[in-house]
Amino acid sequence: MKYLLMIHYIDAPTPRDPEAWARLSEEEQQSVFAGYQAVSQTPGVTSSGQLQPPEAAATVRVVDGETQLTEGPVGSPKEAVNGYLAYEADNLDAAIELAARIPTARMGGAVEIRPFVEG
Fold this sequence. Notes:
This protein is of the alpha+beta class. The protein has three helices and six strands; from the N terminus they run E-H-H-E-E-E-E-H-E.
């Protein structure tokens, strides 16, 4: 089964937030980088990416045949998807184990796991 793991920073400190990132020790920062590197090198991880901040998003809707553009994400910027990876795993338990290894999951963020439709 293939899963999409969507990384939501929420309150997790990241290099994008210099003040919050600076509150982490050098050791903690290196641990975050090492954690992401290890996750990206996990067998079955086929793609990953970091997204620009939610403020860079554009949302498109078509209403009565007219294209409407809204600047920003669909939902709350605080809960927007900030990164993602695809993971081919035997089952949901394996995807959960990988999600728990993503540093953001233990630092105030969350990882949403969604299976791809097969077929």
